[in-house]
Amino acid sequence: MPLTFRAATSPLRAGRIALGIGLVVTTLWAAAATYVLVFHDTVLARFVERQVAMRAAYEARILDLQASLDRAATQRVADIDGVESRLSALTDRQAGLERRQAAIADLVGDGVPDPSRTGALPDAGPLDRELRPGDGGPGRRSARDAGIRLAWLERTLDRFTEAQTRSLGRIAARAGRGAERLRNLVARTGLEPHRLERPAAGLGGPLVPVSGDPFALALAQAQRARGDEQRLRRIAADLPLRRPILGAFSLSSAFGTRLDPFTRGLALHTGLDLKAEFGEPARATASGHVTAAEPAGGYGNMVEIDHGHGVVTRYAHLARLAVTPGQWVRAGDVVGRVGSTGRSTGSHLHYETRIDGEPVDPQRFLRAGADLDAWQFNAP
């Protein structure tokens, strides 16, 4: 009986186990299905969210790259504009310096600038293509290289500007010293310099003040100093500062009180007696108009020349006259030949200098002329 019972219960137990497994599987499947049904929207939402985030990140990166490209392009344009602007300013500045250099050359009367004084202007014009930053093609430079080159050009032009100003200062100082020396030379002749420096006729016009530019002020000062010197040089050229005899001569009688060679009494000698060979040329000591060329009593054959500014010279005891009244003569022109006409004891030239009709010592003028020649010879 017991054996029969076990055999009858085994299929039942197996069925129960199978049923239990089926229930478990069914429960798991139901749970999974329930989970899928319940959390489907959440999972999908997270998936979509991740996709959106990835797309947004990608688009943001693309935007950053585009912005970088835009900034690079903008910087390149700015670099090109900056270089072109600086180069244009340098070109204008160079043109201005060239005009200034021409003004300096005109001031000193030399058409070629002196490179030992001011140096040579850098040529910025041909650098136009070279200095523009580009893509590395032939003849192009990077913005950094262009900036370095432009900075060098700017410093060079700065130095050239300073050199020009210093050059003007030297010109003004040299002209000022020359004008002062000429005034002193004129004063030594007995003439008052201010009477010789009257403004020239035919001048005028509106008053236009000089600008405050340092170079313009320096140029105006140099022009004024140079003008003073040139005016005084013209005045000196009109004064009888040269020797009336270029050949050999000796001073046989000076200006002033002396024993008269005929009366042996004291008398005023109104000029210089220059002993020279008979027929030696007597020359005008400055340019002027001949006011007399004729026998004149004790002077014998005498030539008188009016040099302006109240200055007159006389050449007496001439053997022969070489000019006529009203004739214009230049310094060094022959006015006659040394002789012994009139009140004379031998062959010589009586030479006089008069200021406003009064005789003065010609040695004043001759010494001033010798000093002027020595100064001009030694001038740089």
Biggest sheet descriptor: 10 strands, antiparallel
Helix content: 40-55%
- The sequence of SSEs as H and E is HHHHHEEEEEEEEEEEEH
Structural class: alpha+beta
Give the helix tally: 6
Which keywords apply here?
380 residues; alpha+beta; Glucose Permease (Domain IIA); 2 domains; two-stranded antiparallel ribbon; 17% strand; rod-shaped
Describe the structure.
With 380 residues, the chain is of the alpha+beta class. The protein folds into two domains: 1-132 and 140-192 and 211-238, no CATH class; 250-378, Distorted Sandwich (Glucose Permease (Domain IIA)), CATH 2.70.70. The protein has six helices and twelve strands. It has helices at residues 2-108, 115-118, 127-131, 143-188, 214-238, 362-378; strands spanning 250-253, 256-259, 266-269, 272-275, 281-283, 288-295, 301-308, 311-321, 328-329, 334-338, 348-355, 358-360. Strands 1, 4, 5, 6, 7, 8, 9, 10, 11 and 12 form a ten-stranded antiparallel β-sheet that branches. The protein has a two-stranded antiparallel sheet with strand order 2-3. The chain starts with a helix and ends with a helix. The model is unreliable at 110-116 and 125-140 (pLDDT under 50).
